[in-house]
Design a protein that fits this description.
Layout lengths: L7 H11 L9 H15 L4 E2 L11 H12 L13 H15 L8 E4 L1 H13 L8 E6 L3 H9 L4 E5 L8 H9 L4 E7 L11 H13 L3 E6 L29 E5 L13 E5 L1 H4 L7 H4 L4 H13 L5 H15 L5 H4 L1 H15 L3 E3 L3 E2 L2 E2 L5 E6 L4 H9 L3 E2 L1 E2 L10 E4 L8 H15 L11
Parallel strand pairs: 1-13, 3-4, 3-5, 5-6, 6-7
Antiparallel strand pairs: 2-8, 7-8, 9-12, 10-11, 12-15, 14-15
Helix pairs in contact: 1-2, 3-12, 4-12, 5-11, 7-8
Length: 446
């Protein structure tokens, strides 16, 4: 029997106790719980790559502003549920400075993370026009978005975009949208989990088709400015961050403060709706939201019913950091370049030990180094690989759970500092040694 870095009997017992039929298909939160239980039982630390948790400290500007707001008593007062005026103004400025897009501050809304922005968008967009209720997910993507659609009873379809980049994208997208029953489409850019980034040509295709078929593009910009192959750090100057907003008026932008500003615990993100869409009418909205106006339905219907707004003090913290960024006093891209600096050597550790990068090209360019990367090993499926790596103290999620058509896993670099690289190298080396010349599977031997 081969001795794995983590006691195989403990790992297997905890997998059984989890009650999950297939750990390789487990949700992110289920894996988090399982890995934490194994760590507690063994007293050893995993290389944790299963969850996209930011691993950097938030900027002092934001922290101090939130503290000051609390001292002034905002904790005892409900915020305006569509956002404090200071934050709405800075969100509008931020979008103008870095996307070169103009959006009325009224249409810029704080949300409980960009994930709530996605949720509200799915809910409202799918009820906008009679006969148009389905959502198209351009995969691979964040698994929870499909759960959101499922929870509110919204039908959806999806496809893995990797084989339809560039000139192939238009025909593939149109094959869905021409059916006439799609209300919106959703994607992340940079992409979670593959880290591919749509280029201007592809975004133009998406935008023009959304206009042609009256479909709303829901663009998840959770990793805002984090395609480190370009310098997007300077406000109001080129290059601007690519966005579908340049090519259609049918769009909603979701921007996270968790990644670019390391403010995950504050749970305040940004949702921005185009002026045209916000002021538009939908013939199916009044049934659900007491108004046919899209902006009213979004704010007074979806947002008000869900949370009545994001945390008051957190809004002041976000407003302060956005103002500093907009004024050129804080470089938010430099603040998160640590992820870029981790990704390249981490990928190298995997590829030096028998693994291969799955999503290795960004259309015709090499994939960038950022928050995520994807790898596979030999003929193992992603489901098998997730479970097998647990015995070696490495956790990740299977690509199949993201809508990918490829075998492999998603690795997040955020919780693996450079001080853990030696541990990662040793574990990957043993994994490869144990598997390179045999069909050995640790999960079947304990």
């Amino acid at each position: 029997m081969i001795e794995t870095p983590f006691d195989g009997k403990i790992v297997k017992q905890k997998i059984i106790e989890s009650g999950v039929k297939s750990i390789g298909l487990a949700s992110i939160r289920e894996l988090v719980r399982l890995v934490s239980e194994i760590e507690n039982k063994t007293g050893q630390q995993f290389i944790r790559m299963e969850m996209g948790i930011p691993g950097l400290e938030p900027p002092e500007i934001a922290v101090n502003a939130e503290i000051e707001a609390i001292k002034k008593g905002v904790g005892s007062k409900y915020p305006p549920f569509d956002g404090i005026p200071e934050l709405k103004q800075e969100i509008s400025r931020f979008i103008n400075n870095f996307l070169n897009i103009n959006i009325n501050p009224v249409h810029c809304i704080p949300s409980v993370g960009s994930m709530q922005g996605c949720y509200m968008s799915i809910l409202t967009v799918s009820r906008r026009i009679k006969g148009k209720s389905k959502i198209l997910f351009i995969d691979p993507g964040f698994p929870v978005n499909k759960i959101q659609a499922q929870v509110v009873g919204v039908e959806h379809e999806s496809f893995d975009v990797y084989d339809y980049r560039g000139d192939k994208l238009k025909a593939k997208l149109e094959s869905y949208l021409k059916k006439g029953d799609f209300a919106g489409l959703m994607y992340s850019n940079p992409n979670n989990p593959s880290w591919i980034c749509f280029n201007e040509k592809e975004l133009q295709v998406i935008g023009e088709l959304c206009t042609k078929y009256d479909v709303v593009a829901m663009e998840d910009l959770a990793y805002f400015g984090m395609d480190f192959r370009q310098d997007y750090s300077q406000p109001g100057v080129e290059p601007y961050i690519p966005s579908v907003a340049n090519y259609t008026d049918n769009y909603i932008l979701m921007i996270s403060s968790s990644k670019s500003f390391s403010m995950a615990g504050v749970r305040v993100g940004m949702t921005a709706i185009s002026d045209s869409l916000f002021n538009s009418e939908g013939d199916n909205l009044e049934k659900y939201f007491n108004s046919s106006n899209f902006g009213y339905a979004f704010v007074f219907g979806a947002l008000y019913a869900m949370t009545s707004g994001a945390a008051h003090s957190g809004q002041f913290g976000l407003a302060a950091i956005l103002k500093a960024v907009n004024d050129g006093e804080y470089n938010f891209v430099e603040g998160v370049k640590e992820y870029h600096e981790r990704a390249k050597p981490m990928k190298k550790l995997f590829t030096s030990n028998g693994f291969h990068v799955v999503y290795d090209k960004d259309d015709d360019q090499p994939i960038g180094d950022g928050f995520y990367f994807t790898v596979t090993y030999k003929k193992m499926t992603g489901v098998e690989l997730v479970e097998e790596l647990l015995y070696y103290g490495i956790s990740a999620i299977s690509l199949v759970t993201t809508g990918s058509s490829k075998h492999g896993i998603r690795a997040c670099v955020s919780l693996t500092g450079k001080d853990r690289f030696d541990d990662l190298e040793k574990r990957l080396h043993q994994f490869n040694s144990d598997h390179e010349n045999s069909d050995f599977m640790a999960l079947s031997t304990f």
